[in-house]
Amino acid sequence: MTVHGPCRLCGGPTQERFRLTVLGRHDVGYHECDACGSVQSDIPTWLPEAYDRTRPDLDTGRCERNLQMVLNCATLLRALALLQDLPALDFGCGDGMFVRMMRDRGFDFRGWDRYADGHLAGGFALKSLEGARADLATAFEVLEHFPEPARDLREIFALEPRLLLFTTEIYSGQGPDWWYLSPETGQHVFFYSAAALRKLAAAEGFVFIDFVFVKAFVRRDLRDAIAARRRAPEAMAADIARRPAAWRAHVLAELDRHMRSPWKHVEQDDATRRAALAR
What we know:
Rossmann fold
């Protein structure tokens, strides 16, 4: 293995583990950090090509992923006693499907994306993050896209969230055949170890908790408040892992709750949007 430049998350020394051909033509090295255990690609100079909108869209799981995230996250937020009036922002919202579906369930979501317009959010996608604040932030399949995670994560933490829900696959020594590397798209460029996520959370004043279907950074004061009001979030996470069938029952109850009045919040947003356009 050859010594490479410093880790783009923690600054530790890295060593090359393997090489792949990205976007069918770029020879790219992947380097493991000796300090935090994460793996990163070479500096991704090919990103403009990777995000070129004329390229074929290979994300066939978008709709199913959004449905799973909406049902699970709505159920989790209710279990944590974090209700609908919590200001929330979906960072990297893409077409805005998650934002719209969470708003349909009464949660006060906005969305923002550097590469997409969030058109499905129904007018609740931000053009800029300037001045934006959110007690709850979500970032699904986003963190692995950050070319400079130490810098790029600052945009999320600048929202001053008390809770960050996110998904990304954990690196734990996988090789060049790991499907999550996704060299055919060229968009996945940083892969976090569990240790790196724990250190990152602690450095920012959060606790890292894995809820199986979603990972979370819970700010310490919020974690303590939830534990006092309900039970420790870590205990909830352990229950989800130990009794997945019981959790699915809670998710189905969430779906049933929504189906009893599926248009309630849609109609409220419609009235709000129409009033704004009329001014």
